[in-house]
Amino acid sequence: MKALKSAVILVKLIRESLVFAYNAIWANKMRTFLSLLGVTIGIFAIITVFTILDSLEKNVRESIQSLGDNVVYVDKWPWIGGMDFPWWKYINRPQPNLDDLEVIRENSKLAEAASFFLNYRASVKYSDRTKPDIYVTAVSSDFERIRVFDLEKGRYLSPFELNAGRNVAVIGSTIVDDLFDGNDPVGKFIKVKGRKVQIIGVFKKEGKSAMVENSLDDAIVVPIGFAKTQIDFRRTGASIMIKSVEGIAVDDLIDELKGILRSAHRLKPLDEDNFSLNELSMIKQQVDGIFKMIDLAGWIIGGFSILVGGFGIANIMFVSVKERTSIIGIQKALGAKNYFILLQFLYESVILSVLGGTIGLLLIFFMTVLVSNVTEFSISLSGGNVVLGITISAVIGIISGFAPAWSASKLSPVEAINTKA
Asked: How many helices (H) and strands (E) does the chain have?
């Protein structure tokens, strides 16, 4: 019976608080709007930052998965740089070459696949249409075993075509749109740097990536033997990518590759490496550092906005207490306890704050829909960020409304009844 009575009181408290909150908002629309604006802007700033960071992080993870998080790259230059980057130490290093690839394939026990690749720019022509600056990616065998991709039409380069350096290519969806107006290009011929190349396949659209500067959407993939007839490999930034056997740590693969390449390059024990072994985690660490700075900036900017909004809500609640002082006196005279009055105003403060936060979340939702539809970058408001936004709003409401609610709960019934608003 006692529990039932408490439940009835709680329901009445919630109902009366909702009524009071609604009346206060409706009676003072402009004052309420200006006060809620701070919370709305604060939640918008903080959750927007978190939403963008979450989307970027998802994009990074998907990019790493497509490139292979267990892949090591043999390059001339290390990927980690900075203002004090000692470029003079690396400029005279030799470019990775096909001999390095063969040495790795023959001697590595921890490598599942290894592929040589390089990018160069070329003029591409089809019929009367010309694209002057297209990325051409020249690859050796095993590229398809390391780089994750799907084909929309046609087929991929065969081992014979790769080894023989045939004039065939697989092209990206953007190239199809630019040169063929979206029509099926398989079987047709294009000219790459003046040489005829037959299209045998089309990559499925990948979209923009945070980790891959040039996705396969904008690329033309050709055999490495074909590229030899067009460019000098010694003057092009070539790379070798090696995928480790499943279950083998990348660090173990790096140690093995270092020994293999130092031996192949005839380096003495005290000589420095004349090659770099890079992995995607190096870039990811740099990106994580940037994310943390943006995250901190979002908290600072949003925090100040929420602080202003909190003061606005506290002001509304103090005014509300003053306007309803006589009503508080009547409630106390009829037997209302201090906690009843405290919770009544505290609940109203939370409603106001959560309302401001909800408006901010709605603005973020419409922003994500607009960005996703207008641009190629996919962004979405996650359930976790919605809960975080509502939670922050509720906490601000409790903190901002506690002092006014406490002062209301401590009013004397006789003095409160005789007080004029």
From this structure: 13, 10
Is the CB of residue 342 less than 8 Å from the CB of residue 409?
A: yes
Nearest of 369, 391, 378 to residue 47 by alpha carbon: 391
Residues 95-149 pLDDT 10s: 899 999 999 999 999 999 999 999 898 999 998 888 888 889 999 999 999 888 8
**Per-residue DSSP letters for 103-118?**
HHHHH-SSEEEEEEEE
Q: β-strand 111-126 against 219-223: which pairing, if any?
A: unpaired
Residue at 62: amino acid letter: E
Distance between CA atoms of residues 391 and 387, nearest Å = 6
Task: Please give the angle made by the CA atoms of 217, 161 and 197, to the nearest 5 degrees.
Answer: 55
> How confident is the model at residue 6, as a pLDDT?
67
Residue 416 pLDDT: 64
* Neighbouring C-beta atoms of residue 49, cutoff 10 Å: 20
Q: HSE (CB half, 13 Å, CA atoms) of 292? A: 6
Considering only CA atoms, which of 156, 151, 153 is closest in space to residue 168? 156
Cβ atoms of 118 and 233 closer than 8 Å: yes
Q: Could you report the per-residue pLDDT of 117-128, keeping only the tens digit for each?
A: 998 989 999 988
Q: How far apart are CA 67 and CA 136, in angstroms?
A: 18
- E-only strand ranges, 38-163: 71-75, 111-126, 129-139, 151-154
Three-state secondary structure call for residue 83:
coil
pTM for the complete prediction? 0.63
Closest CA to 32 of 400, 309, 271, 367: 309
